[in-house]
Specification:
five-stranded antiparallel β-sheet, alpha+beta
Length: 740
């Protein structure tokens, strides 16, 4: 592989006009596709194999035209102090609003609060439900504006009016913090590479890669039902790995220049060595992201594949576009150790300072001298950070997790105030009595048994379909949607439904947003272990090929588990317990998003293996070239610690930028990935890894002979390039002899 990548690097450097034109054309093509594509909305959410999804599909079949998947809105009214919603003037204002909303072209139905039980018991709060014919992602902007306008007209009459539901769900915004993260990345690159131009190259190429990835996702969003969150997460991961991969190639290029090589040769060697590590690091990220498909939640699968595609583009850009732009930069990119004049280059060097070991060397030497103490300290520290993970509670966000500044959150609070907290998460019980002799009796029995359960506030009369063989029963829980009591109620209804099935043969299913969230959480919990086995297993096999060792990949996997548990502990402490919530912009604590753990496991595993490959490859390179194990650790850190540290800081800065997003899922994932990289890069890879390698010594690189013969030699360390050098040297000597 090293030889192929070496040739690719030289080709890209030499044919830079062609390579640059190819990537620019690809960016333009993706941009044109995105510009002409319909805007992305919120991806339709389905969970195959769950009871809630089965009931939802049954509603579509038995209640045609009911717009079961249509957007919904709740227009909530509150009377001024001392008044009631039943007062004539207030009632007139509400009915005017209902009439105004009913005229919408996409509106399927609007309920009258005074006829449908939509007025609270104390008479201070009322609501009108609006159902649309199309899903929220397909709703025309004119329909949203009409909804807002109707609410504003009602406010003019003196009422407090807020709107809940998914009809107004906005495309999430990441805010200015993302720009700050990129700015921090730029500063770190300048310090690391000692040149404004060299620092600009990774940023430029990463932006090109993310531009191609996000534009492609945008172009395909409508056709593939990709939600707006998909492009944000793809840009988050693509930007982080794109900068890091480019940084490693540029750093190796400058190191090769410092060895006295010509620029084209240096570009080829940079791609042949650092590029090999980029390929395998990228493969681990892609495996982790594509592996999300095993969960069998279409939205999560699409997010993973889209992000994996952006990572693949970042890898290809690091292997081709980086050497091409290095060719354009020419002598303006200086060898390692030299700075541009603007940053102090050209000054007389202090010999004592130049001969002094760098920080990576000093740190590795310290760890090698005290490996056991460093190892124990790292494990205990991460173990302490992981303690809150034992209290992890999973759920999906609703309007109650929105910022208090939003109308959705204020509508949620008004409904809780007027009708109780459970009103925001009603359960829909679907009774399929198609095979029953007396469907009406079955419907009555189901309603009576549900009323007898604990934590039930209200059970609406059964509403049968036209055929009279299927009915829906709305159930209002006593507790809020995300509470354990509501989850217990869902299980109790399902248990009662099983008894009804045994007695009558009718099927009783529970659905609705709350039941859907509970089923998602359970499905994700059940999928976590198989996912870990698949992803860690595949990456373990890949790392055996890369490092030609059993213990090094095993240590890498165990270190990852430590860092991800510690990161989950930090997420629980902030978003569930409320620690530092003000600093992180968390307005409402609650259960951790159901998809957060498994998504974080996938992404963090891939990124953790990035640093493992980049760091340990350089250590193995020194060992392969004859150094003793302890000295190889020090040598590896001398050449790679500075760059790995810079790459980790860049990734943390980029991920942290997404904490300012308006979307709670993006905000939480941004924090989780940032803290996970912090733990993994600086505790696991920089402390635990060298400590374990120092303790294992030569045993770290043990591999059974039969397995060594069976494995392909991918040559990540570039040993074939060293052979190429020796062969070239012998050829030069032979030519000299011939001339003599």
């Amino acid at each position: 592989m090293a030889t192929f990548l070496y040739r690719l690097g030289r080709f890209s450097f030499r044919k830079r006009h062609f390579v640059a034109l190819f990537w620019v054309a690809l960016l333009a093509l993706a941009g044109a596709g995105a510009a002409g594509a319909p805007a992305a909305g919120n991806s339709s959410f389905s969970i195959p194999g769950t009871e809630a999804q089965k009931a939802f599909d049954l509603l579509d079949e038995r209640f045609p035209g009911a717009s079961a998947d249509g957007a919904t809105a709740r227009v909530v009214f509150k009377a001024p102090d001392g008044q009631k919603m039943t007062d004539p003037s207030n009632k007139a204002a509400v009915l005017d609003t209902v009439d105004e909303l009913s005229g919408g072209a996409e509106v399927a139905q609007v309920t009258d609060p005074y006829q449908g039980g939509g007025v609270s018991q104390d008479g201070t709060v009322a609501y009108a439900s609006v159902t649309y014919k199309v899903p929220g992602m397909e709703l025309e902007e004119s329909s949203r504006e009409a909804l807002k306008s109707a609410a504003e007209d009602a406010r003019d009459s003196g009422l407090t009016v807020e709107i809940g539901g998914d009809a107004l769900q906005a495309i999430p915004e990441t805010g200015s913090a993302e720009i700050i993260g990129i700015g921090i990345a730029a500063v770190v690159l300048v310090i690391t590479l000692g040149s404004l131009l060299a620092a600009g190259l990774p940023l430029l190429t990463a932006i090109v890669g993310v531009g191609i990835g996000v534009a492609t996702i945008t172009a395909l969003a409508s056709a593939l039902d990709l939600g707006s969150t998909t492009s944000i997460l793809a840009s988050m991961i693509g930007l982080a790995v794109g900068i890091d991969y480019a940084l490693f190639v540029v750093s190796r290029y400058r190191a090769e220049l410092a060895e006295g090589r010509e620029r084209e040769e240096a570009a080829g060697r940079a791609v042949g060595t650092a590029g090999s590590a980029v390929v395998f690091a990228g493969l681990t990220v892609v495996i982790a992201l594509v592996g999300l498909s095993v969960v069998n939640i279409p939205m999560l699968t699409k997010m993973g594949i889209a992000a994996a595609g952006t990572v693949a583009v970042a890898v290809l850009i690091a292997l081709t576009l980086i050497p091409a732009v290095l060719g354009y930069a020419g002598r303006r990119v200086r060898p390692a150790g030299e700075k541009s004049k603007l940053l102090g280059g050209g000054r007389a060097k202090n010999k004592d300072k130049a001969d002094r070991p760098n920080m990576g060397t000093r740190w590795a030497s310290f760890v090698v001298r005290r490996p056991l103490a460093v190892l124990l300290l790292g494990i205990v520290g991460l173990g302490a950070a992981a303690v809150p993970a034992g209290s992890l509670e999973l759920g999906l966000p609703d309007d109650g997790s929105q910022p208090t500044s939003t109308t959705q959150r204020r509508a949620y609070d008004l409904l809780s105030e007027g009708f109780g907290p459970g009103f925001n998460g009603p359960l829909v019980v679907v009774v399929d009595a198609q095979g029953s002799d007396d469907p009406q009796a079955v419907f009555q029995q189901a309603g009576d048994e549900i009323k007898a359960l604990d934590n039930v506030v209200n059970v609406a009369p059964a509403a049968p379909n036209k055929a009279g063989d299927t009915a829906t029963i709305a159930v209002v829980p006593d507790a809020k949607p995300s509470s354990a009591a509501t989850e217990d109620l869902v299980h109790d209804i399902r248990a009662a439904g099983a008894d009804i099935t045994d007695d009558t043969g009718a099927e009783v299913l529970v659905t609705g947003a709350t039941a859907m969230n509970i089923d998602v959480s359970q499905k994700l919990n059940d999928a976590l272990v198989p996912y870990l086995v698949l992803v860690v297993g595949l990456a373990f096999l890949l790392l055996i090929v890369v490092f030609r060792s059993i213990l090094v990949p095993l240590k890498a996997a165990l270190g990852f588990l430590l860092s991800v548990l510690a990161a989950l502990g930090a997420v629980v402490a902030v978003y569930q317990w409320g620690w530092l919530s003000g600093l992180m912009g968390v307005e409402e604590t609650g259960p951790i998003m159901s998809m957060m753990p498994i998504f974080m496991v996938g992404v963090v595993f891939g990124l953790a293996m990035d640093y493992e490959v980049f760091l340990v490859t350089r250590i193995r390179e020194a060992h392969v070239h004859g150094e003793k194990p302890a000295q190889a650790v020090v040598t590896g850190f001398r050449y790679s610690a500075r760059v790995v540290t810079a790459a980790a800081i860049i990734m943390i800065a980029v991920f942290s930028g997404f904490i300012g997003s308006s979307d709670s899922m993006v905000k939480m994932i941004g924090f989780g990935l940032a803290i996970a990289v912090l733990f993994d890069a600086f505790v696991v890879r920089m402390a635990i890894v060298p400590a374990v390698l120092a303790l294992l010594g030569a045993k770290a690189w043990w591999l059974p002979k039969w397995l060594d013969r069976a494995l392909p030699n991918v040559d990540v360390e570039g040993e074939s390039l060293a052979v190429h050098d020796r062969t070239a040297d012998r050829d030069d000597e032979d030519k000299e002899l011939v001339r003599a």
